[in-house]
Design a protein that fits this description.
- Helix 1 runs antiparallel to helix 2.
- The longest helix has about 30 residues.
- This protein is rod-shaped.
- It is mainly alpha-helical.
Length: about 80
């Protein structure tokens, strides 16, 4: 029962997907707030919100996936 176990891989993938989902929600909310509060003009708002959303999703997904990997290796 090592890190190559299929159950462990499923846990890491699920953790990463859950982290991405949470990151998208938080990134979209924060990016929208930041775009309107800083007064970013026109279509740059959409670009800013998208960049914030994707960055947040990647970060949350990586950390939750890594946490799932650490928990999986411990069992």
């Amino acid at each position: 029962m090592g890190l190559t176990d299929n159950r462990c891989l499923n846990r890491v993938m699920t953790g990463g997907a859950l982290g991405c989902t949470v990151g998208v929600a938080i990134g979209a909310c924060y990016g929208t707030y930041e775009a309107f509060s800083y007064g970013i003009p026109g279509m740059l708002k959409v670009r800013h919100i998208g960049r914030t959303t994707m960055g947040s999703a990647a970060l949350f997904g990586m950390f939750l996936g890594a946490g799932s990997l650490l928990q999986c290796g411990r069992n």
